[in-house]
Structure formats: C-alpha cells, structure tokens
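Q: what sequence does this backbone want?
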C-alpha cells in the first residue's frame, strides 16, 4: 500500500500544513539503483583525538569524491583516538559546523574504538559516542542517517563503510556495528558482482522480503536457491526462473530439512539466509498452545536445527555466511506477539552465541538483520492507525522497503564482510522503540 502521507508531505501544501501542526515530515529516501549507485556529492573526512587508522585508501574506494566547498554527501568522523571526556569536545567541534551542510539522504558515520576494559576513562568516552550518534540520528532529519562503527582495522571495515556510505543503507540509522580484525576473506575485491561463483539459499523466498533478498543476491552474482514450502510452488518457481536460480520446495520444520538441503546442494553452500517466518498474533491470555508452538517451530527451532546440521556435515563452506532474520519485536517486544517476540529474540541469542564458535571452527560468520516496519502485503493489512504509528515512529518517519532488508543482508553476505560477525543490525529507520 502506498504511503500517501509521505507523498502529501512532498507537496507545498503538505509541507506547510505538517509544519504548522508539528507533524512528522518524512523525506523521500535516496535508494540504490544501477543508474544511481553512489550518493551525489563529496565525502568529508574529519578526526577527533589522535588516530592511527589508515582510512584514506578505504574512503577513496567508496565512489565519493573529496568533500569541501561543494555538496557534502557524507561525513566520516574518526573518533577512534578519543580516550577521555575532554577529547569528546573535539567530536562536537568537528561535527557542529558541518551537520547542516549534509545533503538530504546523506550520511554521517562515526568511527569508534572497542571499549578498553583496562581503561575506564577510554571506555566511558567511547561509550559516549553511542549515545551521541543515536541522539544525532534522531535530530538530523531530511532522510539523513547516522551510524557508529567500532573498529581497529580500516581495511577490515571496508565493506561496512562502503555499505553505510552508499544509497544501499537508506533505512539503516542509529546502529552500532562492531568490526573485528582482518580475515582472509576481507581482502576480496568489491566489484559489481561480488557473489559470482557462490551459491546462496534463501528460505521463505517465494514472496515479500525473501523474494527481495533473493533478487539482490542474484544481482550481486550469486546462484540463488529459492526455498519455500510446497504450497508456494508457483511463486517459488516464478522467482527462481526470473533470477536464473533453482526452486527447492521444502518445509523447514521437517526433522530432515537439513539433510534434504545438503542432498540438493552436493557442491556445498556459501550463503545461508534464514528468512522464513510466520506470525500468529494473539495476547497471551487468549493464545492456545498450538499458536505458540507453531511460531517457535518455524521462526526459531527450524533455524537452530538446520544451521546445526549444515555446519556439522560441512555443507556450509569455509568463508561462508549465515544471515538470520530477527525483528525489533524481539528487541523491544510487541503487544499480542509474545510468541513472535520470543522467537525473534531467540534468533538474537543464537547469533551472539554461535558467531564466535562458527567462525573459529567452520570459518563461517553468523549475523542477523532485525527489520522494523517494512512495507509488505502483511503490513498493508494492519489496521490504519496502527500502520501509521509503525510508519512514523522512527527517525525517518516512514516505513522501509523489502529492498532495504535485502541490501543489508547482501552486505553481511559479502565476501569482504568476514570481519563482521555476531552483529544484529536493525533495519528500522532508527525505530523509537527498543535499543
């Protein structure tokens, strides 16, 4: 369903009326397209504190020219050298004069360092950057986003910086992403088809967000396996045929789902996207056991079971990627969704626990995306006032698109994202609910 309010606020009468009434004024977001792959403007590189990061070569490969007197599309503030409260004044001094110059749908990325457990002054100053970036994200407006990246190695963070400084991250704001040290895969070339030669399986890919994820991974060169339940066969085959992939008709809750996936992929799997999920909403006092059980089985148990099986039998290759779908309902909770919220919080727990072991033992990264209000057929059926609240209660004052989740998933699946592990990234326009 079209966001008519967003269209109205783009008109002169709409801007005047919403301004007078103090209503949200969402800006149309600049999203990725082959015709517009980069933001329109320059990149301004600033520093607070003393930094040893070799950022210049990485930033030169973002596609953004140097900022200055012209249009500023993005600002990168290197605050990795901030080690005490006094140095935080340099953060203010650096960004205060330039925030207004960032174009609509522009980017502000703050770079921080991991918190030093042996230095509570450094830890306090670096943690302060989190509150700073999230607060700036809520006030900067005009479709601009603000994110914090904690890192120690600029080269290891290249895929993350390229994503956050591009139109692909239009609906990702107020996030804190931790990037580890360099890995073998980190040096992979960042071309137009980074997933060429790789096989990606997307569950629940016959429609909605899953279809968008499959489409984006295919765009990036992957051979896509479109997995969905047998009842969705016509749609699954339609998507697979359109993308030049294959359809795999399978109920993920089956005890032998992992074995059947392995059998269908004798050459192995490089990217596993756990997207399949269901809702069976009802308040707990009115929720029968079967409604609880089926949601937990589809959204969590099947994810755990198949992930374990595909790792154990080696179907997931070294250098592989697992991206699971969580939800802000699992982070902030949602009335009428105790079953769904529990299942999606469980996905977060899975990611945080499995990620270090999967990387050490199998060479596979494990991350999650956590969508907020995304414009799909499911949300179009939500009652009007609840739907409008979902759209407006974020810093961008609008719903996201399936493509926003897909682009974030593609970043986490990228061969050069090997240093991104154990992260749960909300794709929610910086929802005003949750962390």
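A:
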């Amino acid at each position: 369903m079209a966001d008519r309010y967003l269209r109205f606020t783009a008109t002169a009468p709409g801007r005047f009326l919403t301004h007078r009434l103090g209503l949200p004024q969402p800006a149309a977001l600049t999203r990725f397209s082959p015709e517009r792959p980069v933001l329109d403007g320059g990149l301004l590189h600033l520093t607070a504190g003393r930094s040893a990061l070799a950022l210049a070569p990485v930033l030169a490969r973002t596609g953004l020219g140097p900022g200055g007197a012209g249009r500023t599309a993005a600002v990168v503030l290197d605050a990795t050298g901030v080690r005490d409260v006094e140095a935080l004044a340099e953060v203010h001094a650096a960004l205060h004069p330039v925030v207004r110059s960032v174009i609509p749908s522009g980017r502000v990325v703050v770079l921080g360092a991991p918190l030093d457990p042996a230095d509570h002054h450094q830890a306090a100053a670096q943690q302060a950057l989190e509150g700073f970036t999230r607060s700036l994200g809520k006030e900067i407006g005009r479709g601009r986003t603000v994110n914090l990246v904690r890192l120690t190695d600029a080269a290891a963070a290249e895929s993350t910086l390229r994503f956050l400084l591009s139109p692909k991250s239009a609906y990702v704001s107020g996030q804190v992403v931790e990037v580890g040290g360099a890995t073998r895969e980190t040096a992979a070339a960042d071309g137009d088809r980074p997933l060429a030669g790789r096989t990606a399986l997307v569950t629940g890919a016959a429609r909605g967000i899953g279809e968008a994820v499959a489409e984006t991974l295919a765009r990036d060169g992957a051979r896509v396996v479109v997995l969905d339940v047998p009842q969705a066969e016509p749609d699954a085959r339609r998507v697979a045929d359109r993308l030049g992939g294959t359809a795999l008709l399978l109920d993920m809750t089956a005890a032998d789902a992992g074995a059947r996936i392995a059998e269908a992929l004798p050459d192995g799997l490089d990217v596993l996207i756990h997207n399949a999920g269901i809702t069976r909403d009802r308040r707990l006092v009115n929720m029968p056991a079967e409604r609880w059980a089926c949601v937990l089985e589809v959204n969590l148990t099947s994810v755990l079971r198949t992930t374990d099986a595909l790792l154990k039998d080696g179907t997931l290759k070294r250098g592989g990627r697992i991206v699971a779908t969580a939800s802000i309902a699992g982070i902030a909770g949602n009335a009428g969704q105790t079953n769904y919220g529990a299942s999606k919080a469980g996905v977060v727990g899975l990611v945080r626990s499995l990620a270090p072991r999967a990387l050490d033992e199998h060479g596979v990264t494990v991350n999650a995306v956590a969508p907020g209000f995304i414009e799909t057929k499911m949300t179009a059926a939500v009652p009007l006032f609840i739907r409008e609240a979902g759209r407006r209660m974020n810093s961008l004052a609008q719903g996201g698109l399936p493509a926003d989740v897909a682009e974030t998933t593609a970043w986490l699946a990228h061969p050069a994202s090997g240093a991104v592990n154990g992260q749960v990234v909300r794709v929610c326009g910086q929802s005003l609910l949750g962390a």
